[in-house]
Amino acid sequence: MSDTWLNEGLYDSWGQRFRVRKELAHVKSPFQDIIVFESDSHGRVLMLDGVVQITEADEFVYQEMLTHVPLFTHAAPKNVLIIGAGDGGVLRRVLEHKSVERAVMVEIDGDVIELSKKHLPGIAGDAWNDPRADVIVGDGIEYVANAPDGSFDVIIVDSTDPIGVGEVLFTDSFYQHCARILGPDGLIVNQCGVPFMQADELRETSLRRAKFFPHVSAYVAAVPTYVGGFMTLGIACKGGDPTVQVVAAVRARAEQTGILGATQYWTPEIHVGSFCLPPYIAKHLPTKK
Amino acid sequence: MSDTWLNEGLYDSWGQRFRVRKELAHVKSPFQDIIVFESDSHGRVLMLDGVVQITEADEFVYQEMLTHVPLFTHAAPKNVLIIGAGDGGVLRRVLEHKSVERAVMVEIDGDVIELSKKHLPGIAGDAWNDPRADVIVGDGIEYVANAPDGSFDVIIVDSTDPIGVGEVLFTDSFYQHCARILGPDGLIVNQCGVPFMQADELRETSLRRAKFFPHVSAYVAAVPTYVGGFMTLGIACKGGDPTVQVVAAVRARAEQTGILGATQYWTPEIHVGSFCLPPYIAKHLPTKK
């Protein structure tokens, strides 16, 4: 076994470390420092600016929850916008939904896409070539600022934490445009970090989203390599309250897509249950009106 | 900030690390290597044989789920046996349940109790002095082998992983005696590790428990410093199926104890939802008869 270890640099005084079998790529793009390495424990790992974004072994948790929850919360999502998610894993899951007619993915860093295609081909699979996919290397902020009113049903924001290149995806202006370009039943999901370590992220982005959406909440997922207990995925809806879903309705939608039984983490029960937040997390959400 | 880091040694090629502010104790007991240190990130941390057992910052997750779930699953727990849990945190939570008349705690390593009393006094609080508590420094296996038939309602096993001193708590003989000393509605809970990293632990102990209990299942908790996604708590019941509980009934029990609203992780909704397992975990449980 190799004696080379890579420490995640997300937190000052605590974190995870990986034994590195082999570094596959290390690129300084115009936006960030990108590393792909082969780990002993988790298959291949993608790190941006020293922070784990995805590993082959556990990517299914984050991807399934970031995608299937919003797409089954919306009654009939046809047009989906993905911001970030350069590895293509969200795109692949979005396209598993037969109702989806168009999936636009806007990733600012073309190098992340290229390195993912080369070193993590299993994560996106054949999604890049799906005729419904429109992959744009560009600025997500600019894209939402210019997109027509009501042109999307679901927006999925798969950003880094609100430092560095991802910071602008946590601003008033961004959420305001998102609300504008969503249809009347539209909803947006974005990653809000691990509240045990980064409670500010959930608290502040929830307050921001509450300015533009009537229903602001969050749901949880236990992602093995986003260490520190539950991570939260923030959800904001223009239509119904996402916290009052029932298992049978979610199950019926999943049956129609063929996704039921094909997931490793997401199930209709986990979908509904993930909106039940532990008090230590719930206290960071805005009080319901 | 100190430049001293302590790496958890649980897994060969992946794990967490803590910046150590100060080592408070390092004792080689007859059973294991015990370290208590002050971390920068999680308050004080107790490690046994290089594996994190508890931190002041996140102990509430594990303790609440290990205690409140079995004690609210049983209709009226009076006699509770705790094996291990030398820090006293489970004992404290058990005694919060007014229905409990007697809580016997059997910890094999007296040094863990003494070091916890000295360095982690907040975890057990005043539980050590509760007249209902009977704290025994001794062998849990021997205790269950000698205890009378049907003398307990709930058994909570807070062991280390099935290596070293904790190994005997994962044997047929141990579970057989546990089944014998439980009453007709009795149930046992034990920690079954983090399945993403240690699936064997859940699979093997579930099979063992299935030999002696009609209902064998597991529920999940996202414990920040038991890294690797959900940890599982195995539950085996002589009476009813624990997976079919309803929120209103759990809530009614919690209201009677005064625990409702006083927890940071456990809620009636999370109690019931924690039995909904992701498929990647559920596949390790025995098929239901």
UniProtKB/TrEMBL annotation, chains A, B:
Regions crossing the membrane: none
GO molecular function: spermidine synthase activity
Gene3D superfamilies referenced in this protein's UniProt entry, alphabetically: Spermidine synthase, tetramerisation domain, Vaccinia Virus protein VP39
Binding residues annotated for S-methyl-5'-thioadenosine, in chain numbering: Q32, E107, D139, G140
EC numbers for this chain: 2.5.1.16
Domain PABS: 3-238
Catalysed reactions listed for this entry: S-adenosyl 3-(methylsulfanyl)propylamine + putrescine = S-methyl-5'-thioadenosine + spermidine + H(+)
Active site: D158
UniProt pathway annotation: Amine and polyamine biosynthesis; spermidine biosynthesis; spermidine from putrescine: step 1/1
Keyword list, A-Z: Polyamine biosynthesis, Spermidine biosynthesis, Transferase
Highest taxon of the lineage: Bacteria
Primary enzyme class: transferase
Entry-linked SUPFAM superfamilies: S-adenosyl-L-methionine-dependent methyltransferases
Binding site for spermidine: D87, D158, S159, T160, D161
Complexes and interactors: Homodimer or homotetramer.
Function in brief: Catalyzes the irreversible transfer of a propylamine group from the amino donor S-adenosylmethioninamine (decarboxy-AdoMet) to putrescine (1,4-diaminobutane) to yield spermidine.
Similarity-based family: Belongs to the spermidine/spermine synthase family.
UniProt name for this protein: Polyamine aminopropyltransferase
Species the sequence originates in: Acetobacter musti
